[in-house]
Q: What sequence folds into this?
């Protein structure tokens, strides 16, 4: 990055972070800074000391109360990196430590950041007179990202104009933050957009924090400043999956039908919740599942704790909700002596269906999907065989040979956020057709990996070759605001905008002179479709459906779960390029396997056991993917589906193999050991 | 040879004799082989308090020699090069132990000497080579001695190399163990409570176990071995009776209890491993030779 | 300590503390853009270089070990035919790598090809053991390695 400023020395900057988890900041005393070195605390911020995301905000630099270990307190920059680091170490910070940490297991009223609930029918009454009730507690541990591919930002402020370089999933939010921090009008901030891989969504808001701080320093120093993540500020730049605890209680009739469902969801959001509203909605909708249950009460609470902030981590924890409902229902099926497939086939809605929140599902083919994946994997036969094997096993799960199980899960993921956006927060793109027949797509989300799909889409509609479609690179001053590139918006919302623009161009093509430019924007549909207060309607831009089966084997020596095969079927609407889709799904499957099965106590995945993406066995599991395209219109995201469905399929398979109920993610050998000992 | 700009000497000897005389004059120095273990344990800005002797320039330490009876490996031979020696020469368990050290781009630089001499913990090859009765050449200026690898560290994990000494060669007898096994899981540096390795060597004759050796490694500063367990199994039939399996397990349990170094999870894994291989013995083709 | 090494065919002199990581020297002193340090422990391979011809993690090499060495980074490697073969294979699969992974992945592929004329899946997985990139399908990498190996064999021996 630094090479983009020829002739100008880019100053290196590092963050000084709090070394205590909770307390009061008394004072910060920089050592004597040599000439050319600068330090800032919150007092040096000319504008607003906040980082905003959706409706929430947090301070950039701590002003008074320290809320977690690793909270940024000050930043120092200068021409020599080693000197900056040594100045950071010499800086004296005085604290008044508060030893009463905010925990998650026993929280107080005050710690509840927000609460959402969804009610339908009369749950308590039905539970009171139920034929049988089934209870389950599901725990998704917080999990740090394997690593952070965020490499920092460079801010150059001169003559009242700020230019920012760095990878970000949300360039326009970054621009807003920097403008607010520097007290600049929006138009005076320009964000150069680079290509990026969103990986864990760590480039959603963290770049905004770094860019804002670097901009303030650059303003002070009069030189470009590069702020890169240092080892000490790991808690600042590395994202963590929020810890989620879900308790479910179901009233079940004599046939195994769930008549009422009560669930309480608690989410550990760390010290500064961002995206609270959206995150709670997503988990709640995930936990409601896709079966018709007449009575439901689900409460979802975001809890503030003294841990580093946990927000977006590959979406907003929708998958934790799905995990709980699917694992729970597999358990109910087992209690009633049904196979997980039979149970679901009898209780899934037919063609004309509704979501629990009331949204009407057009062209719903859940049963077909389920039936196909059951057939593809020979599920029923294997399930019966493994049941028999387990029941006939005399000694514990040890001895000759590995033990096996198979599990199933069904569900959907939503595309785009549920939240209603501010007026200036629409997703917009432009498409231009030039005289030489080249098609140019202009979108601030061009850094995302969906560009290949956009090209295919435009080429298919306009009858050209994908190679003559260009996705223009640029910055916030010449590209339209395409919103935050997460929750599969690149592939669902933006692709459908590309589609709309191209259809319009096609219409105008032989009636208007070239070039033709068409702009289209997406706004969340009005309350008629989704009412976020009452939790009614269809919450997402579109839904992607899927069914997954996992066949596993447990190695009786090391207690590792080895995956033998994965069968996945998806219906996410129109697919423009099957090959890309299958590759993306496969990647996501392998990644989910490692995340579900690795240990959770490592910040970096171990080289020995298993790296991300490279499973432990020295061969890859069998993966079979089938794509259904029953809904020809809206393209939807696909790569979230394995993350949502596979964990519960795996857990159910392990439960079948061992005869012990598992309910925790990730499922590490230690967890397996503890549960087996408990038995 | 020495440079002294930042208050530290970095010696770069070109021959063993030069190395030994430097070590004689500057006993309090750090030997630097591939540096992979040393660097991995450092923070973001590495700093070493001692002077350093770089071993990478010494050709003599990078030789591999094979005779009828043994394989002799220079202390600074990179692991990659040892693996290239080939399956037919390299004992299978050793080759597995080497292969499971990090990915190839680390094995390019990591050495066998470094793997054995790591002070803070016993790593992959240590237990395998102890079972194989490997011996080490330890040299100091004007003197050399051969010691059994089992004497390199005391029970408490303290090393017995004097400050002016260097490990120069590792000699591995090529006994015919017709069953060999090595496996390791977990990161011995960052996951010490779960990480574990098992090394197993066995000689069989006409359906009888004539000799067996078994060690649990990668668990910290020591390894766990039980002589009672090994002698109990000797002369037993390969098809062990269930009672014999139980007895053998009990012997090893005792050894584990005495050392108190294993976590309950590591113990569980060990017992599972022993049960597994004693069962598998009935069908011992499963072991790759 | 003053050290001197060859970097992508150029002679470089650097004055630095003797235990500075080579990765930091390449990033800070030599302004090499393809070298990153996401772990500093030899695990993430974002700092991979060719060190005297072999792939190595530059974060584990201190300055003094780099004296008189020959270093090739992605910048230098991108001028070779091998690089173009690898890139062509990547292009055919439609995959892009992020900045952080590009150098490590490409140089690791090269080192596999240097060791095996016809690498199999196990050898490729071994080389990528511990890879932390969660967004590139390992099967695609396997495809790319096999394809590149094929191009190489064709070029060198004119055979499949
Ligand atoms: C990513 C990664 C993964 C790893 N995984 C594993 C693993 O799975 N299993 C495993 O066993 N190890 C592992 N290691 C650790 C290490 O790399 C290896 O053990 C390696 O063999 C050490 O060799 P080296 O030459 O780099 O040792 P160095 O780091 O150079 O030295 C290690 C120690 O040995 C001393 N020493 C070196 N040579 C001599 C000598 N001739 N005489 C006396 N003392 C000497 C040194 O002074 C130092 O104390 C891993 C390392 C990394 C970076
Ligand atoms: S920084 Fe060197 S391997 Fe990660
Ligand atoms: S390509 Fe770099 S993290 Fe995946």
A:
């Amino acid at each position: 990055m630094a090479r983009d400023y020829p002739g100008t020395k880019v100053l290196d900057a590092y963050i000084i972070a709090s070394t205590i988890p909770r307390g009061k900041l008394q004072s910060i005393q920089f050592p004597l800074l040599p000439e050319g070195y600068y330090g800032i605390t919150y007092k040096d911020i000319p504008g607003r000391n906040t980082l905003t995301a959706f409706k929430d905000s947090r301070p950039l630099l701590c002003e008074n109360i320290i809320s977690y270990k690793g909270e940024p307190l000050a930043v120092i920059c200068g021409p020599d990196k080693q000197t900056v680091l040594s100045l950071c170490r010499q800086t004296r910070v005085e604290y008044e430590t508060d030893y009463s940490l905010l925990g998650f297991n026993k929280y107080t009223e005050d710690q509840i950041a927000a609460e959402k609930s969804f009610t339908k029918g009369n749950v308590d009454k039905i539970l009171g007179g139920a034929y049988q009730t089934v209870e389950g507690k599901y725990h998704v541990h917080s999990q740090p990202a394997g690593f952070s591919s965020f490499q920092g930002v460079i801010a150059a402020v001169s003559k009242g104009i700020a230019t920012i370089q760095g990878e970000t999933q949300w360039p326009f939010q970054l621009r807003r933050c920097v403008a607010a921090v520097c007290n600049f009008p929006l138009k005076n901030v320009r964000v150069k957009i680079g290509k990026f891989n969103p990986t864990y969504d760590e480039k959603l808001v963290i770049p905004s924090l770094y860019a804002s701080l670097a901009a303030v320093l650059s303003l002070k120093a009069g030189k470009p400043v590069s702020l890169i993540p240092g080892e000490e500020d790991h808690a600042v730049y590395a994202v963590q999956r929020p810890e989620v605890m879900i308790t479910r209680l179901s009233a079940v009739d004599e046939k195994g039908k769930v008549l009422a469902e009560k669930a309480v969801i608690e989410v550990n959001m760390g010290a500064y919740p961002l995206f609270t509203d959206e995150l709670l909605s997503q988990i709640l909708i995930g936990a409601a599942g896709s079966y018709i249950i007449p009575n439901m009460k689900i409460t979802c609470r975001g809890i503030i704790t003294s841990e580093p902030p946990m927000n977006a981590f590959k979406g907003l924890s929708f998958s934790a909700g799905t995990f709980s409902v699917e694992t729970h229902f597999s358990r109910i099926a087992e209690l009633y002596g049904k196979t997980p497939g039979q149970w679901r086939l009898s209780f899934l809605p037919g063609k004309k269906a509704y979501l629990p929140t009331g949204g009407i599902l057009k062209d719903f083919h859940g049963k077909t999907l389920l039936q196909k994946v059951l057939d593809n994997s020979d599920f029923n036969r294997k399930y019966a065989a493994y049941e028999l094997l387990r029941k006939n096993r005399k000694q514990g799960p040890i001895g000759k040979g590995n033990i096996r199980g198979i599990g199933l899960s069904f569900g959907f993921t939503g595309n785009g956020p549920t939240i209603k956006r501010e007026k200036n927060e629409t997703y917009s793109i432009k498409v231009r057709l030039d005289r030489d027949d080249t098609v140019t797509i202009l979108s601030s989300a061009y850094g995302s990996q969906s560009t290949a799909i956009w090209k295919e889409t435009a080429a298919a509609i306009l009858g050209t070759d994908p190679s003559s479609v260009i996705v223009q690179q640029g910055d916030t001053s010449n590209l339209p605001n395409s919103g935050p590139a997460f929750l599969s918006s690149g592939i669902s919302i933006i692709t459908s905008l590309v589609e709309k623009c191209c259809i319009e161009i096609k219409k105008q093509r032989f009636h208007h002179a070239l070039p033709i430019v068409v702009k289209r924007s997406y706004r969340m549909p009005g309350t008629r479709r989704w009412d976020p207060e009452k939790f009614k309607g269809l919450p997402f831009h579109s839904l992607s459906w899927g069914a997954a089966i996992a066949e596993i084997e447990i190695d009786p020596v090391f207690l590792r779960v080895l995956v033998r095969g994965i069968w996945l079927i998806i219906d996410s609407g129109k697919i423009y390029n099957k090959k890309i889709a299958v590759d993306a799904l496969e990647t996501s499957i392998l990644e989910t396997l490692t995340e579900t099965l690795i240990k959770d106590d490592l910040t970096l995945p171990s080289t020995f056991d298993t790296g991300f993406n490279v499973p432990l066995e020295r061969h890859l599991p069998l993966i079979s993917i089938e794509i259904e395209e029953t809904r020809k219109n809206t393209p939807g995201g696909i790569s979230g589906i394995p993350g949502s469905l596979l964990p519960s399929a795996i857990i159910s398979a392990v439960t079948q193999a061992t005869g012990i109920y598992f309910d925790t993610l990730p499922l590490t050998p230690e967890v397996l050991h503890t549960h087996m000992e408990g038995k | 040879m020495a440079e002294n700009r930042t208050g530290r000497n970095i010696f770069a000897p070109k021959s063993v004799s030069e190395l030994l005389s430097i070590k004689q004059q500057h006993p309090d120095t750090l030997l630097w082989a591939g540096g992979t273990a040393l660097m991995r344990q450092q923070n973001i800005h590495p700093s070493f308090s001692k002077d350093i002797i770089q071993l990478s320039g010494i050709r003599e330490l990078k030789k591999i020699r094979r005779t009828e009876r043994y394989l002799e490996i220079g202390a600074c031979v990179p692991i990659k090069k040892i693996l290239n020696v080939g399956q037919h020469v390299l004992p299978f368990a050793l080759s597995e132990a080497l292969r499971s050290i990090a990915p190839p781009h680390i094995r390019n630089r990591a050495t066998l000497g470094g793997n054995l001499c790591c002070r803070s913990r016993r790593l992959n090859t240590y237990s395998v080579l102890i079972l194989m009765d490997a011996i080490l050449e330890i040299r100091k200026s004007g003197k050399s001695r051969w010691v059994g690898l089992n004497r390199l560290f005391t029970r408490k994990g303290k090393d017995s190399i004097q400050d002016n000494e260097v490990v120069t060669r590792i000699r591995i007898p090529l006994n015919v163990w017709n069953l060999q096994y090595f496996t390791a899981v977990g990161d011995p540096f960052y996951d010490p409570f779960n990480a574990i390795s098992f090394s197993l060597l066995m000689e069989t004759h006409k359906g009888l176990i004539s000799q067996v050796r078994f060690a649990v490694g990668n668990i910290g500063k020591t390894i766990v071995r039980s002589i009672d367990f090994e002698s109990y199994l000797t002369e037993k039939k390969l098809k062990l009776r269930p009672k014999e399996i139980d007895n053998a397990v009990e012997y090893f349990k005792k050894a584990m209890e005495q050392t108190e170094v294993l976590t309950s999870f590591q113990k569980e894994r060990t017992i599972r491993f022993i049960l597994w291989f004693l069962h598998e013995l009935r069908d011992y083709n499963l072991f790759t030779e | 300590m003053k050290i001197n090494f060859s970097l992508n065919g150029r002679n470089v002199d650097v004055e630095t503390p003797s235990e500075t990581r080579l990765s930091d020297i390449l990033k800070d002193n030599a302004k090499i853009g393809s070298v990153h340090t996401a772990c500093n422990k030899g695990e993430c391979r974002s700092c991979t270089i060719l060190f005297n011809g072999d792939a190595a993690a530059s974060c584990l090499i201190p300055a003094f070990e780099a004296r008189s060495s020959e270093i090739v980074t992605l910048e230098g490697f991108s001028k070779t035919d091998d690089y173009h073969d690898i890139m062509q294979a990547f292009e055919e699969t439609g995959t892009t790598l992020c900045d952080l992974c590009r150098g490590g992945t490409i140089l690791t592929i090269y080192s596999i090809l240097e060791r095996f004329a016809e690498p199999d899946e196990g050898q490729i997985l071994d080389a990528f053991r511990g890879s932390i990139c969660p967004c590139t399908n390992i099967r695609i990498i396997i495809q790319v390695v096999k394809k590149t190996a094929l191009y190489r064999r064709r070029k060198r021996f004119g055979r499949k």
